[in-house]
Fold this protein.
Amino acid sequence: MSPEKDELPGAVLDKSPLALIPVIALVALPLIPSLPTWVTLTVAGLAMGMMIFIMASGLTLVFGLMDVMNFAHGAFITIGAFVATSVLLPLAGWTRADSLWMNLAAMLLAVLAAMAVTGAIGLAFERVIIKPVYGQHLKQILITMGGLIVAEQLILAIWGPDMIALPKPVTLRGSFIFGDIVIEKYRVLAVLVGLAVFAAMFLVLNRTRVGLLIRAGVEDSEMVESLGYRIRRVFIGVFAAGSALAGLGGVMWALYQETVTSAMGMHVMILIFIVIIIGGLGSVGGCFIGSLLVGLMANYVGFLAPKIALGSNILLMVLILLWRPQGLYPVAKR
Amino acid sequence: MSNLLALSGVNTRIGHYHILQGVDFVVPQGGFTMLLGRNGAGKTTCLRTIMGLWKASAGRIDFDGADIAGRSTPAVAQLGIGYVPESMGIFAGLTVRENLTLAARDGPIDEKRLDWMFGLFPALKKFWHLPAGHLSGGQKQMLAIARAMIEPRKLLLVDEPTKGLAPAIIAHMVEAFRELKRTDTTILLVEQNFNFARSLGDTVAVMDSGRIVHSGNMGELAGNEALQYRLLGLSLDAHQ
C-alpha cells in the first residue's frame, strides 16, 4: 500500500529566492518619490517580468533538457511578433472596435498563428540545425547564431526593413486609475497571461507523466533512456513548445512596445540570458522568479537612473551568482 | 540451465580507445552472475554496451534469443532489462515516489510489488515524498535498485552497488539481494568487493584489459585463493 502523505517527511520549498521579490520592492520604496509611482513601477515591473518569463521559459527548458544553448531563440520571438503583425493589421476593424471581446478575439488569433508558425519552425530547426550538433557546444553557439542572422535577413526580405507600428487593441489602451495610482490595462493582461503560462507549465511539469519525464530528462537524459523511454521524442516536443512560447512572448512584447523590428528578439535576448542564468539553467521556477526580479529592477532603476538600467540587471545577476553560483534554483545535475 | 544473455566477440571503442576487445561470457537464466576485475578492466563498459549506451563495434549480444547489439537504449530496456549504473542515476530533484512512478513504465505501480519492495528497503517508505537528492548514499542505492525492479524485469544489470557504502548498509544490501534471488531474478552484477560477490554469486566472469580471463562457478573461484590472487590481485584474508 502506498504510504500516507501525512505520516512522512516531505520536500521543503526553498523560500529564500522568493523573498528577493519583496526585498527588492521594499528597498526601492524609499527611493521612489511617491507611493503611487512606486505602485505603478512595481506593476510595470511585474508585467515586464511576466513577458520575459514567457519568452525565457522555453529557452531554459531547452537548455536543461537538451543541453543546447539556442542563440536563435530570439529569432522565434521576432517571427512571432511579425506573424502577429500580419494577422492583426488586416484585422484592424476588430482591434479598433470598442469591444473587449472583439479585441481579445483578434489577439487570440494572432497568438495562435504566431505560436503555430514558431512551433513549426522550431520543429524544423531542431531536426535540421540542432540535431547534428547535440553535445557540441561551440558548434551549437556558432550554428544557432548563424540561424539567428539568417532568420533576421529572411524577416527583412518578407516584411521589409522598416519598423512596423503595432498599436494595442482599443480596449487594452489606457489605464486603470485608483486615486493617484495608474496601472496600464495591457500590463494587467500581461500579468494574467504570464501567470496562466506559469500555471500551465507548473501543472504539466508536476502533474503529468510527460512533465515527470521532462524533469527527469533535465537531470539525466541517459538514465531516462535506460528506463525505456525515447527521450529524444520529448526533446523535439519541448523544443517546439519552447519556440511556440517564444512566439507568444514575441506577440506580447510587440504589443507592449507597439512597434515591431527585425532586431527586437536579439535585443531582448540579453535580458532572457540574464533571467535563465539567475534562475538556474533548466529551472522553470527559477526562471519565473528571475524574470520578476529583472522586470522590477529594470523598472525601478529605469525610473531612478535610466542610463544604468541594463547594467543594474547585470549587477543583479553577479550578486545572485555570488550568493548562489548555480542560480536561484539549481537543477540537480548541474 | 539456459543462458538468458550471451556476449560473443564483443568489441567497444570509445573515441580512440579500444576498451572491450572480444568479450565472451554468458549469464544463465535465474542466477546471479558476478562480473569481477580490477579498475579499468572494462566491466562498466561491458554493462553500458549491453544497455546500448555505448555501441558495440563488433560481436553479438544475444538476449532472450535475439541479437540486441546495435539497438537503442530504450529498445533494450523495453525488452525487460533493468539497469543500475555505478553513479546510481537517481533523479535527485524528483521524490522517491516520482522516481519509482517513472520507472513503472507499464502504468501505475503494482501495490503488492511496492509492499514487497518496502519490505526489502523500508527507508523508501519512510522517505516516500522526499526528493531523492536528500537521501543518504545507501538509501540512494536502495532506490536505484528498487527503481530497476519496480516492474518485473527479465534481467537486472547492477554496477558496483556497494561502492562507498558502510559495512552495515552492505550487509543490508546482501539480504535484499538474497531476497531477490528467491524470486529467480537473473542478475549480472559488477563488483569490486569480493566478499559481497562471493556471498551472492552463482557464476562468475573475471575481466582484465577488456577481455574475459576467467569464467565458471563462483564456488570454484571462492575456494581457490591462488586463482583469486592471480585474477584479481587480492588476498581474501586481506579483504576481510
